Structure formats: structure tokens, C-alpha cells
User: Fold this.
Amino acid sequence: MSGEAEAARPEDVTARFTGLAGLYARARPDYPAEAIDFILERCGLDATCRLVDVGCGTGISSRIFAGRGLRVVGIEPNDDMRAEAEAVPFEEGTTRPEYRVGRAEATGVAAGWADAVVAAQAFHWFDADAALREFRRILKPHGWAILMWNERSDVDAFSAGYGRILAATPDGVAIQHKRMTAGRILLEHPFFRDGRRDVFCHEQVLDEQGLIGRALSASYAPRRPDAVAEFIASLRSLFASHHCDGQVTLRYETAVYTAHVVD
Assistant:
């Protein structure tokens, strides 16, 4: 879908992306094929399996897994985000995700229905323990929980500069820290075992407008017109200093946490 608790109270979280769904769908990166291949192999997932994508947003990860042949149910509480996901056209014969209203802590999915549950770029917004209890409830015996984030990497000057601009926003540092640490609970939770964290390289090639859209799609990007103007000016300056033929490359490390239900 924060600052500390005040900025990310559960009652506030679902509204953070209201009005941003179209921008989010256009500007956010996908996930590396290598990471998806790893998940499918490690978790033993194939076209016979059911996957629940919790906090699915505009359906970026839902479509990726559906494209691999899985039956996918996306759970999303924000009406704007879910409507954006549902509006994506699919070719005839292509597996299409099903989208439902629900929350991570109360998905509405039947007990023991899913072979796997994934939360992509979303778990840090959840009540972690309540969400993992719900994951266990809807998973089959030995079913898998998967948490995934694209985290910005500072391996080059442009990506580092982009990170500094976002870190200067009021919630930027706190939300990044929350994202980077939120997955640890899965590795330690008593309902799951054999947990591990794996990291994959990823990147997003952007023109100037794409860069601005990517930054403004963040839940903690400024919204006041004067602050937005200053934010965009900083992004334009960064782009001007680093672009090559009108493009820049934003680099990520995609962190994947996996663990299965205790038998």
C-alpha cells in the first residue's frame, strides 16, 4: 500500500493511495523474472495451484503470477486500486486474476483454499501478526507465505540521488526502514518454518516524465502544490545531471521472503 505508528495506523492505511491508482499502475516497476522463477520452484507452484495476492493494489504482481498459469485471487481494500486492476484488458485465453474486497487480516478467502499467499510491496502496511495468522488460516497444509519488495539500491549515483530526494520527504526514511525490516517476522514466526530471504537485482528505465510519475506514486510523496513543485524541480535537476539519451535507470534489489506453514 510510514512514518512510525502515527503515520501508519491501520484505519489510515487503505486511503493512502486513493486518487493515485492510475499513476501507480503506470509508474511502478514489475518484478524480475528470476525472482518469480525462484518463487515458483521453491514453493512448488504450477498451473494446478491457487495463489492469493494480498494487498494486490493495481494487480501488478497478480498479473505476473496469473501469466505463469496460476489461479490468482487478488485481495485489495482500496476501491480505486482494485478498480484499476480490474480494468486491465486481457487477451482471450489468458488466465485472468479475480479481484475481491478484503484486508490482509481478514481476506474473506475460505480456510485451506490457497497453495500460496503473496504480499508484494504491501506487507509493511499490515498488522504483521494478524496477517500471518490469516495467511495460515487460508493456506493448505505446508502452504507457502511469500513477501516481496522492490527496494531502491544506491549502487550508482543516480539511484542514490533519487533515494536522497525521497528520503527528504516527511515519512520517507521511516517508511523505507519499515519496508526493509517488515519481512523478518516471517523468518521467526511460530506458524511458519524453513524461512529464508533471497535478493535479486532489478531495474526500471525511465524518461523524465516516468521518473516524476514514479516518485509521485509513493504514498509519502508531497501533495501540497508548493511542495510538489519543489519535489518535481529536484527530480528534474537529478534527471538532467544523469540521463543518457533521455533516459535514466533506477536500480532495485528485490527482496523475497519465503516460509511454509508448520505441519
